[in-house]
Amino acid sequence: MAGMLYLVPTPIGNLGDISQRCREVLAQADFIAAEDTRVTLRLLNHLGLKKPLVSYYEHNKTASGGRILDRLLAGECCALVSDAGTPAISDPGEDLVRQCAQAGIPVSALPGPCAAVTALSMSGLPTGRFTFEGFLSTAKKSRAAHLSALAKESRTMIFYEAPHKLLATLQDMAAVFGPDRRIALCRELTKLHEEVVRTTLGQAAALYASQSPRGEFVLVVAGAEPERETVSLDDALARAKALVAGGMSRKDAARQAAQETGLAKNAIYAGLLD
Ligand code: SAM
């Protein structure tokens, strides 16, 4: 019988955020697959656990993933952890989960720390609809293509970024989304120097042009305002005439039709006088 792959989220800065259930799964798993075994060893020492560790990271995931799969198929249970946060979210794990799904090995994901959701929830920006964009590419062409594909995105957007690339990213975003677009820069979440700066892209770029960013950042960027439908002057005039026919004064009808269509009140009023 196949074993089970557990996806175990770990703290993104505050060790107190490890859940009781995550401790139990780490304690009970036959072995732990870790992005960096030294980082995970520190966590296990903190929890007072001793477990067999194997490494599973970006550059060994094909070979290591094959060995993990064999052990799961033989009936063992594996807990997968990344350095911090939720495995498979901008971290190794996605491939292993897909391979397990294909091989009929059950996967269980434990809920827990994730920088993206933590940042979104405290951003002050709309949370009803959002899109996770991860890291922008460092290659100029694909980075530009990624941003321009988002130019009209109306949902709140979440990006991860390293501090040394932050300024260039803010400048590129300001160029594509406009300097007035709102952004929440969520820094060092759950750590001693946690900070959220709610500002605009233009001001954020100016801020980090004058001081070096430190620590880890999640960028939460407001979506684009929905585009107003373009209405012709004839349509606006027809609307104003209908309002006048309903008993409204020409002046009020022109004002209301202008509000509804975004066209100039004077032009609609002039049309009504003709
Ligand atoms: N799997 C992780 C998760 O669930 O959040 C994300 C790992 S990704 C390799 C690392 C990026 O997450 C960092 O570059 C930063 O953008 C973000 N991040 C992680 N911890 C953070 C923290 N404490 N504060 C702000 N951002 C953080």
Structural category is alpha/beta
- Cofactors and ligands: S-adenosylmethionine
Strand numbers in spatial order across the main sheet: 3-2-4-1-5
Radius of gyration: 26 Å
**How many individual helices?**
11
Which sheet architecture does the biggest sheet show?
Answer: 5 strands, parallel
> How many runs of DSSP E, i.e. beta strands?
10
The residue ranges in which pLDDT falls below 50 over 5 or more consecutive positions are none
Order of helices and strands: EHEHEHEHEHEHEHEEHEHHH
Mean pLDDT: 96
Helical fraction equals 40-55%
Span of the ends, CA to CA? 84 Å
Write the layout of secondary structure elements.
Elements: E1 4-7, H1 20-28, E2 31-34, H2 37-47, E3 53-55, H3 61-73, E4 77-81, H4 94-103, E5 107-109, H5 115-122, E6 130-135, H6 140-149, E7 156-161, H7 166-177, E8 182-187, E9 195-200, H8 201-210, E10 217-221, H9 233-245, H10 250-261, H11 265-273
Parallel strand pairs: 1-4, 1-5, 2-3, 2-4, 6-7
Antiparallel strand pairs: 7-10, 8-9, 8-10
Helix pairs in contact: 3-4, 7-8, 9-10, 9-11, 10-11
The structure holds S-adenosylmethionine (SAM).
Task: Supply the key terms.
five-stranded parallel beta sheet; binds S-adenosylmethionine; 274 residues; 11 helices; alpha/beta
